[in-house]
């Protein structure tokens, strides 16, 4: 979701930095960069550990999401090509899943802001639904299983290095979107190819090859 359907990085960063400032700690954006795409437990928890702050992670996330909700409201459009790509996928009878390390609370804020109802997707797996966060493949394995598919029948679309590694470890083909990291870094992480926008995937052979017997799915 984050960095693929919607560009949330500036908002979650501001919200997290606000939370730490309220705890008397000044953080920098680079404190959070290694944990992008790994879920808020790590995004907040690892930075707290770096600065020697003991936190109740559940309470910390509630406060971060309060700030995040306020910052996002009315300011969070879908990324380029998202609506067109999802519409195209549906015309091709491709199944769609969201597999996001974000907690359900954040995920629902995002969908609300970009006016995409949860019912539009065949499966939604959030960070709250798995034990192991990306780069562990559990979230993609769970999403594929929920749609009764083998990961090799799926295409994972990711913007984060942790997500690319998770997608490849699951056995899926993986497309990187260069919204958060450069194409070079995404390819180094294992992406099979890199695009700048989901518009580039409409009518792409990766999703339309007859050899896949129309079972190639978009995650």
In short:
With 219 residues, the protein is of the alpha/beta class. It folds into two domains: 9-72; 82-218, HAD superfamily/HAD-like (Rossmann fold), CATH 3.40.50.
Descriptive notes:
The chain is an alpha/beta fold and 219 residues long. The chain has two domains: 9-72; 82-218, 3-Layer(aba) Sandwich (Rossmann fold), CATH 3.40.50.1000. 43% of the residues lie in helices and 10% in strands. The chain has helices spanning 9-22, 29-32, 40-50, 57-72, 82-91, 104-113, 138-146, 161-170, 183-189, 205-208, and strands spanning 97-99, 123-125, 154-158, 173-177, 193-195, 217-218. The strands form two sheets. Strands 5-4-3-6 form a four-stranded parallel β-sheet. Strand 1, helix 6 (104-113) and strand 2 form a beta-alpha-beta unit. Helix 4 runs parallel beside helix 6. The longest helix is centred in the N-terminal third of the chain and has 16 residues, at 57-72. It is globular. The termini are close together. Mean pLDDT is 90; it is low at 210-218.
């Amino acid at each position: 979701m984050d960095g693929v359907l919607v560009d949330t990085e500036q908002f979650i960063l501001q919200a997290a930095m606000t939370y730490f400032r309220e705890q008397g700690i000044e953080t920098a954006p680079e404190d959070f960069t290694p944990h992008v795409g790994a879920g808020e437990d790590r995004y907040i928890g690892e930075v707290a550990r770096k600065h020697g702050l003991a936190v109740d992670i559940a309470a910390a996330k509630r406060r971060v999401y309060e700030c995040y909700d306020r910052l996002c409201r009315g300011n969070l459009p879908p990324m380029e090509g998202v609506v067109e790509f999802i519409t195209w996928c549906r015309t091709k009878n491709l199944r769609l899943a969201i597999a996001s390390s974000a907690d359900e609370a954040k995920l629902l804020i995002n969908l609300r802001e970009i006016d995409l109802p949860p019912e539009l997707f065949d499966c939604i797996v959030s960070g709250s639904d798995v034990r192991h966060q990306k780069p562990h493949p559990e979230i993609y394995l769970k999403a594929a299983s929920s749609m009764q598919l083998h990961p090799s029948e799926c295409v994972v679309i990711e913007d984060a290095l942790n997500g690319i590694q998770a997608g490849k470890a699951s056995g899926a083909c993986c497309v990187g979107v260069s919204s958060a990291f450069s194409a070079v870094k995404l390819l180094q992480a294992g992406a099979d190819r890199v695009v700048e926008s989901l518009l580039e995937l409409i009518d792409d052979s990766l999703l339309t090859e007859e050899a896949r017997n129309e079972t190639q799915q978009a995650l």
